[in-house]
Amino acid sequence: MFYGWRMVGVAFYAHLVASGLGFYGLPRLLVPLAEEFSDGQRAGIAMLGAAMSLAGMIFGPLVGRALTRFPLKTVMPFGVAVFALGFLAASRATSLWHLVAVYATTVPIAVGALSSIGANALVGNWFDRQRPMAIGVSQFGLSISGAVATFFISWTLSQGGWRGTYLWFAGIALVSAPLLWFAITDRPSQRGLRPDGVTDEEVGPPPAEPPSLTFAGAMRDRNLWLIGMCSGIVFSGTTGLVQNAHAFTTDAGYTDPQADTMLAVISIGAALGKLLFGWLGVRFGERPAFWIAIVGQMLAMLLLPIARDTLPVLLAAGAIFGLALGGVMPAMAALLARIYGPAGFGPAMGYMAPMLIPFQMIGAPLAAAVNDWTGSYDLAIYGFSLSCIVAAALLVPLQIPQRRA
Questions:
Q1: Among 36, 235, 269, 316, which residue's CB has the most CB atoms within a 10 Å radius?
Q2: Is residue 391 over pLDDT 60?
Q3: How many domains does the structure of the chain reveal?
């Protein structure tokens, strides 16, 4: 078996830890944290996700730049160690601003170094032709973490409340740091290999790498802006809906276990979507796969409020949403890797963070605020759905290099 698939397994685990603790933890903790710190009002707690996203505007480019100076073998374990420190501090929080400080400092550093930039860069280094599928398989961990985290957090909440949950988070992160350090090999050349496992006789001399991407160059690059704005609009809707999915389901009259099932269905659908859209990216190209994911997300969002009154139909709508959600991240990452090459992929992911964050940070608090004002999430969901039309249009003028045979 090509050694690169082992690195896909490492990236799978990195996504599982980063997403399960840093992203899917918040929707399950939304209600208990709101009861503890904001008299049951959810908009204030939803601002934790916004604080994490806003801080990503600063830390994303720094992590991307770090990948031009330090190996992934150092950056990724450092990120998960920062996770451990942050969640240990969160377990001792006595006011909301303590949690805001954690989610605005340690969490975005950790998620960037470990997952959104680090794990994707690792897979991008090891694959070329099969890159969309490899990224999709690795990001299976990103999505399946939702199912794992939801039920795991329900158990930890029953055992030790939200403080005990954060202590569990810190312990998992602490154990993961040495595991990643021993497992990571940055590039195939370090083992005398080529991307995809091909030989020199099969493909000839390696292609020239695109010029090194600087921050100033990135800010002038039309492709990066188009992908960043498109992805930001899509992520605004997905973040807003996922972070409020548990509350949306319980507001419809269902129990906590049924709402847990809804989150699990979304995350399982997203996990399967990684594989489906990874295959679509290899078969039809990265941009068509991205378009299909955006359209699927738009249709699923339109269906959710209609399906609310019948649990099996609601779960089916959640599964469709999850399937489309799963395709967005691998399609975006594969597009960046195609345009900027393995060496420029990590910096491009980091430099794009300031473009993504203004969109991404408003999704969850906006949906929560709309619910607080109107008593329903419907208006926010319809708005997120219609914004997908703009996102899809932004991909039309992209200039994408041709694939190698």
A1: 269
A2: yes
A3: 1
